[in-house]
């Protein structure tokens, strides 16, 4: 049954993207930048309809009250493509979100072109220190415009129960701009595995942690605070993935 669900969703997602993604690409130049985001939301919500109704994957959100009313930096666990869609529903008042992503993604047909039209924060990861400056330059502008900035500090999708080094990009942006930071944990990889065709129906838990002001903090302090909260929360929502969870409780 999962194979049927996954096949139907893949077909649906391709057709929906072919129909809706071009609207995102042309909306910005013709109607103004905000229309690219509006059509992008239509594209995303249409895809999420397929996720919920064809794949049977839905979300349960804990701590929604922790999300600030003003634009901030959201630093989240990254396990699948699922959270790139659904995390955007966690911000208040219908606000828009932008992601920090590698610029190579902008070259992908349809999806990449749509991301470029929505002016995501794209960086050259080979640029070293200059890549961090790119994040700050673009991130400051987006935050001033009222966009929430979502960044995955581990830099790649990580299977449930595993962890990568938390990179400094999100912390660097927050400390240089002086804004709030929100850590987010979730277990999407339990149902939408990394680079897997087959998905499993179920309810993903998204846990939003307490926001804190990065002003006056060092990059290392922000990163450590985010990592400590996310990794502890992952052990709470997915204890079966962490053999040491019971001992550390």
UniProtKB/TrEMBL annotation:
InterPro entries: Plipid/glycerol_acylTrfase
Entry keyword set: Acyltransferase, Membrane, Transferase, Transmembrane, Transmembrane helix
Keyword hit for Transmembrane helix: yes
Family matches, as SUPFAM superfamilies: Glycerol-3-phosphate (1)-acyltransferase
Pathway assigned in UniProt: Lipid metabolism
Membrane-spanning intervals of the chain: 12-37
One example GO MF annotation: 1-acylglycerol-3-phosphate O-acyltransferase activity
GO biological process, one term: phosphatidic acid biosynthetic process
Phospholipid/glycerol acyltransferase domain mapped to chain residues: 72-189
Keyword Glycoprotein among UniProt keywords: no
Pfam families from the UniProt entry: Acyltransferase
Cross-referenced PANTHER family: 1-ACYL-SN-GLYCEROL-3-PHOSPHATE ACYLTRANSFERASE
Protein name (record): 1-acyl-sn-glycerol-3-phosphate acyltransferase
Species name: Azonexus hydrophilus
């Amino acid at each position: 049954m999962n194979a049927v669900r996954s096949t139907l969703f893949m077909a649906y997602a391709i057709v929906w993207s072919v129909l809706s993604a071009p609207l995102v690409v042309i909306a910005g130049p013709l109607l103004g930048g905000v229309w690219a985001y509006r059509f992008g939301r239509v594209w995303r919500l249409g895809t999420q309809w397929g996720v919920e109704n064809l794949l049977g994957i839905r979300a349960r959100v804990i701590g929604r009250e922790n999300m600030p009313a003003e634009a901030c930096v959201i630093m989240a666990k990254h396990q699948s493509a699922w959270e790139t869609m659904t995390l955007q529903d966690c911000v208040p008042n219908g606000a828009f979100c932008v992601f920090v992503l590698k610029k190579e993604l902008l070259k992908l047909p349809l999806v990449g072109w749509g991301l470029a039209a929505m002016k995501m924060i794209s960086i050259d990861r080979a640029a070293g220190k200059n890549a961090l400056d790119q994040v700050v330059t673009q991130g400051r502008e987006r935050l001033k415009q009222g966009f929430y900035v979502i960044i995955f500090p581990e830099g790649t999708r990580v299977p449930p129960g595993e962890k990568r080094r938390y990179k400094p990009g999100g912390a660097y942006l927050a400390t240089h701009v002086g804004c709030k930071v929100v850590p987010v944990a979730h277990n999407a990889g339990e149902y939408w595995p990394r680079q897997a065709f087959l998905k499993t129906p179920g309810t993903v838990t998204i846990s939003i942690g307490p926001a804190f002001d990065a002003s006056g903090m060092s990059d290392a302090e922000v990163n450590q605070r985010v990592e400590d909260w996310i990794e502890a929360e992952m052990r709470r929502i997915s204890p079966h993935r962490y053999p040491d969870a019971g001992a550390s409780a």
